[in-house]
């Protein structure tokens, strides 16, 4: 079945804005990977005095939604402060595009995460934040899972309290995640698993990511979160 895209998505896919690279960029960040099907690289110019993003461009490897969300993200980011970017939600991009198909909601998450990664890189280089990405613990894994959405509802697995079990073995770099999945969401299992593997796999120290699903009615009420 063909996916239905809004006129705004089609416009940004066929005529994307701010495509390319900034040669003397102050920050460059990549989110996603070709292996998972979608990837975005942003380059930014940031004013060190005002902390305003004066220019931002992107390169995309992915589908129509990947290109459209990245294009819209650059328009929304340009002229904004780094604090504005840190507050930005994937829903802001989705709304600006007039909606996205359920199975493509992750593209808006990828687009926002890429902007935030570029901003964090700039902050790290200027000594404004500390780099705690080397810690593979429940906090880091939980933060990563906030970027994984249930395509049907548009809510993250964390907000929807769908994580039933989380196990982390730092010695082997193994992370095990058990997710509650109701019958309505079974068709999205592959998408959700792919997103979990991508988000957690990007954490330093994560060598192996295992994902398991269980029907809602077989899990009970005692969730990890």
How would you characterize the largest beta sheet? 3 strands, antiparallel
- What percent of residues adopt helix (DSSP H or I)? 25-40%
- Counting DSSP H or I runs of 4 or more residues, the number of helices is 7
Secondary-structure class = alpha+beta
CA-based gyration radius: 18 Å
Strand order of the largest sheet: 1-2-3
Record field, number of beta strands: 6
What is the CATH architecture annotation of the largest domain? Alpha-Beta Complex
Oligomerization state: single chain
Low-confidence runs:
218-225
Q: Could you state the order of secondary-structure elements as H and E?
A: HEEEHHHHHEEHE
Return the CATH class of the largest domain. Answer: Alpha Beta
Overall outline:
globular
Number of domains: 2
Q: Indicate the mean pLDDT.
A: 89
Instruction: Report how far apart the termini are.
Output: 36 Å
Please name the CATH topology of the largest domain: Sufe protein. Chain: A
- Portion in beta strands: 15-25%
Secondary structure blueprint with pairings:
Elements: H1 7-14, E1 27-33, E2 38-46, E3 53-61, H2 64-77, H3 82-87, H4 90-96, H5 105-125, H6 138-145, E4 163-169, E5 174-181, H7 189-201, E6 208-215
Helix pairs in contact: 1-2, 2-5, 4-5
């Amino acid at each position: 079945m063909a996916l239905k895209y809004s006129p705004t998505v089609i416009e940004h896919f066929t005529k994307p804005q701010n495509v390319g690279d900034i040669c003397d960029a102050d920050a460059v960040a990549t989110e996603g990977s070709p292996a998972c099907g979608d990837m975005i690289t942003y380059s930014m110019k940031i004013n060190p005095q005002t902390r305003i993003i004066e220019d931002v461009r992107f390169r995309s490897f992915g589908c129509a939604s990947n290109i459209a969300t990245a294009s819209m993200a650059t328009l929304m980011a340009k002229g904004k402060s780094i604090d504005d970017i840190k507050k930005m939600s994937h829903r802001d991009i989705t709304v600006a595009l007039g909606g996205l198909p359920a199975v493509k909601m992750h593209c808006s998450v990828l687009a926002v995460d890429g902007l935030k990664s570029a901003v964090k890189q700039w902050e790290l280089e200027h000594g404004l934040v500390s780099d705690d990405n080397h810690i593979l613990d429940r906090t880091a894994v939980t933060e990563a899972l906030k970027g994984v959405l249930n395509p049907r509802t548009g809510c993250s697995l964390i907000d929807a309290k769908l994580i039933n079990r989380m196990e982390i073995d730092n010695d082997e770099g193994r992370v095990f995640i058990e997710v509650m999945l109701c019958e309505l969401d079974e068709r999205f299992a592959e998408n959700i698993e792919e997103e979990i593997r991508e988000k957690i796999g990007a954490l330093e120290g994560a060598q192996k990511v295992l994902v398991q699903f269980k029907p809602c009615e077989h899990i009970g009420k005692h969730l990890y979160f």
